[in-house]
Specification:
469 residues, six-stranded mixed β-sheet
């Protein structure tokens, strides 16, 4: 293990720390792993690669540890698991590179990354959180791949590019290796450009409200409920001057019994934190029409370790806003692609989402919700306490955005709606499942090839490539 190898690993880890799971510099993941992968392809000993990759992978989880470590200490164990997965993926690519054409190694790194992101999302209480593909949310042409393959398609692109660049550094004249990563990226860019040229649905005016002074207050001080309701009733009345079709109040902001009279032609979606029998609680989004609360939605997905006492919901809520089919969800629900596909299959063109973030993760968690919109063809109106108030169209473009504050906050914008019903919402995770099959096939082939080469390794005086260690 040379100083150069160590420097490559530290550089890769630093770039991953800035790009992966932190939000604003996600595009860095397209190059962040390149120094480490180059060192891995050239290193003579596998255990050296394992150590370097684990260190780089652990550094790359700095974002989640910074965001959530003070609130959810389990995130440190999750970060170590993520680093272990990254280490195994780098070793897998190295093994393929030493025994097969370089193009196979490039694709192997990408399909293993995609497969493990998908499999983890199936069993994790955090859904698709930690998926590499979210890093590409601000590269809007590539983001459109989510309408075909979901976030697994984005994870594939985010992995195949650095793998291809690493092989390009080592074997600059390997045409098949160049094709293996450049063709998928070019195809994604062409498709993305075509998608972005498509006309949007009709625009609808949305108002988002917030006031971080009241975030979570009704849980600890139920007697503050009437005062908080009165404060937001004033905000609703003020927002009504802008003529919105819908007004969104953040998650868990109000106590039961809060009542609103929406402005003419408008509805209000407000987050309510309500006690239930047996010491349980309800996380509710209430839909208010001219006659009061006309429907409620119960949050399906809870934050592990913080919302154990809340009763999860089981159904969707679809209504009409401005003549458009509109869905309602709450905060963490947006981390679960399989749940939001149910709205896409019902051709919902707009989602209204009360939310509550952790301040530090505002950009990351808000952008994850935007990906759900691209996957399913709906625009997003998300109002998050201690986070961002965001209006984004069905292609993930930001129409309007601002941070909440310790005081009344209002964001109003004309939001082009989506048309729902994307390829991804219809076929689901077929691409991810194909990646799992490809990964398992390559893994079996690698084990077979290694077994076949092992007996002859000791008799070969001059092997064509270094033997595995």
């Amino acid at each position: 293990m040379t100083r150069w190898d160590i420097a490559c690993a530290l550089l890769a880890g630093a770039l991953l720390a800035v790009g992966h799971d932190t939000g604003r510099f996600g595009w860095l993941v397209l190059a962040a792993s390149v120094p480490l992968l180059v060192a891995a392809l050239r290193a003579p000993r596998a255990w050296h690669v394992a150590v370097l990759a684990f260190v780089a992978g652990w550094m790359g989880e700095a974002g989640p540890m910074w965001f959530y470590g003070r609130i959810l200490p389990a995130v440190y164990a999750l970060a170590a698991c993520q680093a272990l997965v990254f280490m195994l993926t780098v070793l897998f690519m190295r093994g393929l590179y030493r025994r097969f054409p370089a193009a196979v190694a490039v694709l192997g790194f990408a399909v293993m990354t995609t497969a493990l992101d998908y499999l983890r999302g199936l069993v994790s209480p955090n859904g698709s959180f930690f998926a590499l593909g979210y890093a590409l949310v601000d590269i809007v042409p590539l983001l459109q791949t989510a309408a075909l393959a979901g976030v697994p398609g984005l994870s594939f692109l985010a992995a195949v590019v650095p793998a291809g660049l690493a092989v390009l550094c080592v074997r600059p004249r390997d045409a098949r290796a160049i094709v293996s990563w450049s063709v998928p990226v070019l195809a994604a860019l062409v498709y993305g450009s075509w998608q972005l040229a498509q006309p949007p649905g009709p625009s609808v005016r949305i108002a988002l409200l917030g006031d971080d002074r009241y975030a979570g207050r009704v849980f600890h001080h139920p007697d503050a409920g009437p005062a908080i309701a009165a404060a937001f009733a004033g905000q609703v009345a003020a927002a009504g001057a802008h003529g919105p079709a819908a007004i969104v109040v953040p998650e868990k902001m109000l106590a039961p019994g809060a009542a609103f009279t929406p402005p003419p032609g408008s509805v209000v979606v407000a987050g309510i934190d309500a006690p239930a029998s047996g010491g349980r609680r309800l996380n509710v989004a209430a839909l208010y029409g001219p006659g009061g609360a006309i429907a409620t939605y119960l949050k399906k997905r809870m934050v592990p370790g913080l919302e154990a006492e809340y009763v999860p919901g089981t159904t969707e809520l679809v209504t009409q806003v401005g003549g458009l089919r509109t869905g309602v969800a709450i905060c963490k629900d947006m981390d679960f692609a399989q749940d939001l596909r149910l709205y896409g299959r019902r051709d919902v063109g707009l989602m209204l989402v009360p939310a509550w973030d952790f301040d530090r993760d505002a950009y990351l968690h808000g952008r994850m919700a935007i990906v759900r919109g691209v996957e399913n063809g709906f625009a997003l109106a998300r109002s998050a306490s201690q986070g961002l108030m965001t209006l984004s169209d069905a292609h993930g473009r930001i129409v309007a955005e601002r941070r909440t504050a310790q005081g009344p906050a209002l964001l109003v914008g004309d939001l082009p709606t989506g048309r729902g019903g994307t390829v991804y919402s219809r076929i689901g995770d077929v691409f991810a499942q194909a990646a799992v099959a490809a990964w398992l096939g390559l893994l079996a082939l690698l084990m077979w090839r290694r077994k076949c080469l092992a007996p002859s390794a000791g008799f070969s005086a001059a092997p064509s490539s270094p033997s595995p260690r």
